[in-house]
Every structure is written in C-alpha cells, then in structure tokens.
Write a structure and sequence with these properties.
single chain, 176 residues, mainly alpha, Hypothetical Protein Ta1238, Chain: A, two-stranded antiparallel ribbon, 2 strands, 57% helix
Length: 176
C-alpha cells in the first residue's frame, strides 16, 4: 500500500521516534528541503549523464540520505572523510576553471543552469538544517558539525560544477 492515512491530520513521525511532528515544523521543513535537493540532483545527474560532472553527484545524493537519517534519529552522520572528499572534489574541479573576477550570471548551458539552481536549493537546505539546531530543547534536533560542514561545502561544489559545465562557453557577468 502506498498510503497509510496516518498523516491526514497534518502530523508525521520520524524514524524510530514516537513523538509526532507537525508537517510544518522546522524539522520536517529541513527534511523536505534535503529531499527536494536530492530529487533535483537526480534530475541534474540525468541531464549531465554524458558530462564528467555527473559522477560527482552520485556520492552527494547518498550523503544527503545520511544527513536525512541523522535528522530522523537513525544514528547515522557524515564523517570527516566525507567532508575531506568533497573538498578534494571542489579543489580538483576548481583547478580546471579560470579565476573568478566577478559574479557570474546563471545559465549558459542547461546543465550549468540546473546546477546553479541546485546550489540555491542546497543553501536553503543548509539554512533549514542550521535552524533546527537552534530550536528550544524539546524540539531541537542535533546535526553533527561534520554534516553541517558537508552541507556548507555542497553549495561550493555545485558552484564549481556549474562553472565546469559551462567551461566551453564564455561566462556572462552582471552589468552593474
């Protein structure tokens, strides 16, 4: 069965947690933002299947599931190795790109535009995750410092991937 009717009154529970949460709670908002990001990255992966940036997205998607599991309370979290790996990936791709001299306008190629959009969604997901660490004690959800670091690095990775997806065209810059 694909429905349970348990959430019909606007409440839901998390993995292994007897407590019910409003579907509009900050915790559910954070989980929803991570889910939205993961879905969008799946679309990006499909649109970049013949481009080297696609490989970078596979591990990211798995790590987002780990962070969601951590928030839900299943005892998983991102480790320091994952943070170091995403930093290495950012550095590796960044070395292939020209120096940044100004902001760039999103777009250029379809994959680049999708990755830029993913970057903005990643930043929102990060803000939602940070917000749930600041809730009152009874509502607060702990997220490891490594998971928060990973989310912070993720927007940087998506930025360099977007630029890399555009590497064959001249980047556009805003005119002030």
């Amino acid at each position: 069965m694909f429905y349970t009717r348990k959430g019909d009154k606007g409440l839901t529970n998390l993995f292994g947690c007897a407590k019910k949460f409003s579907k509009s709670s900050p915790v559910i908002e954070a989980l929803g933002a991570l889910d939205e990001l993961n879905s969008l990255l799946g679309f990006c992966k499909m649109k970049t299947i013949k481009h080297p940036v696609s490989n970078s997205l596979k591990e990211v998607q798995n790590n987002l599931f780990i962070i969601q599991g951590e928030i839900a309370g299943c005892g998983k979290s991102i480790n320091k190795k994952s943070v170091l790996e995403i930093e290495k990936e950012i550095d590796k791709i960044g070395k292939k790109l020209p120096k940044i001299k100004s902001f760039t306008v999103s777009g250029g190629t379809e994959p680049s535009a999708l990755l830029d959009y993913s970057r903005a969604v990643a930043r929102r997901a990060e803000r939602r995750c940070v917000a749930i660490t600041c809730l009152p004690a009874r509502q607060k959800k702990n997220i490891s410092s490594e998971s928060l670091k990973y989310l912070n690095r993720l927007s940087s990775l998506l930025f360099v991937l977007a630029r890399y997806a555009n590497h064959d065209i001249k980047e556009k810059h805003p005119k002030y």
